[in-house]
Amino acid sequence: TDISRELDLSFLPSGTYDITLFQDGLNADKVATDYRVTHQRISVSPSQAPTPLQIRMTSGGGFAMKLMKSK
User: Fold this and answer.
1) ∠54-37-28 over CA atoms, to 5°?
2) Fewer CB within a 10 Å sphere, N or C end of the chain?
3) Count of other CB atoms within 10 angstroms of residue 46
4) pTM recorded for the entire structure
């Protein structure tokens, strides 16, 4: 069973951020080493909250995220 969650990023101060996201792969429920890595850049401004990140996990799975302010 897949689990989907939204990760609220409204706690971030204004700026541009690079995100590296490690999420369960398509077969992670059967093969624990199945994962995918995605990269994205988001911008946060005081006038508009950032769009929440969509996180998908398999039952018993998880995710990890590296969040860095862009230089």
Assistant:
1) 80
2) C
3) 7
4) 0.81
Contact of 66 with 53, CB cutoff 8 Å: no
The separation between CA 66 and the C-alpha centre of its own chain, rounded to angstroms, equals 8
| Residue bearing tokens 């996180």 | 55
Tell me the three-class secondary structure of the chain, residue by residue: CEEEEEECCCCCCCEEEEEEEEEECCCCCCCCCCEEEEEEEEEEECCECCCCEEEEEECCCCEEEEEEECC
Nearest to 53 by CA among 71, 70, 66: 66
| Dihedral angle sign, alpha carbons of residues 12, 18, 22, 24 | positive
